[in-house]
Design brief:
Helix 2 packs across helix 3 and helix 4 (about 125-130) packs parallel to helix 5 (about 155-160). The chain has a single domain (about 20-170), classed as Rossmann fold. Helix content is about 40%, strand content about 20%. By secondary structure, it is an alpha/beta fold.
């Protein structure tokens, strides 16, 4: 797979406006209906990405697919993952949070069909996998993770390098 050039990566990292990165071979896809995939985490950048994604899905007459990735915390005494029953409860709670993040934008774009997916996979891995069936992937420039001084978060960096569709990075 081709790597993204330094000019495109720098523009995505430093621009004061939305940037759409279209790597060779990732142009317009014949996905019907068009699917606009958006990564959500509740951050201000994520909310801006949701707004952009809803507008794109509405303009294209497509479906908005929101993906949220969460990781169950390790048990403090053993470093193990939560038992499945605990994880299922957390996943359900995370699904409710995603609906709350989506609702204000869905109210503004009521004709857009919305799907949501909550996963415990790593965010970049989950988005790259889900982008295989998408027309456009929309991410915020930086979410909850990372360092405050970075202009482009690690998830954004990974998806613009590896997603199978164009990626919009929103500030």
């Amino acid at each position: 797979m081709l790597r993204l050039g330094s000019v495109a990566a720098n523009v995505a990292a430093h621009a004061d406006c939305p940037v759409v990165v279209v790597r060779p071979g990732t142009g317009e896809r014949a996905v019907q209906p068009p699917v606009v995939l958006v990564g959500v985490d509740g951050s201000p950048a994520s909310d801006a990405a949701l707004g952009f994604a809803f507008e794109e899905a509405d303009r294209r007459g497509g479906v908005l697919r929101a993906l949220h990735s969460w990781e169950p915390p390790a048990s403090p005494w053993r470093g193990e993952r939560w038992p499945l029953s605990g994880s299922a409860k957390v996943a359900a709670a995370e699904g409710r949070r995603v609906r709350e993040w989506i609702q204000p934008w869905h109210d503004r774009h009521p004709l857009v069909a919305v799907e949501q997916n909550v996963t415990s996979d790593r965010p970049a891995v989950a988005l790259i996998e889900a982008a295989k069936d998408a027309t456009l992937l929309v991410v915020g420039s930086r979410g909850h993770g990372g360092f405050a001084g970075l202009l482009l978060g690690s998830v954004s960096q990974q998806v613009i390098h590896h997603a199978a569709c164009p990626v919009a990075v929103i500030r």
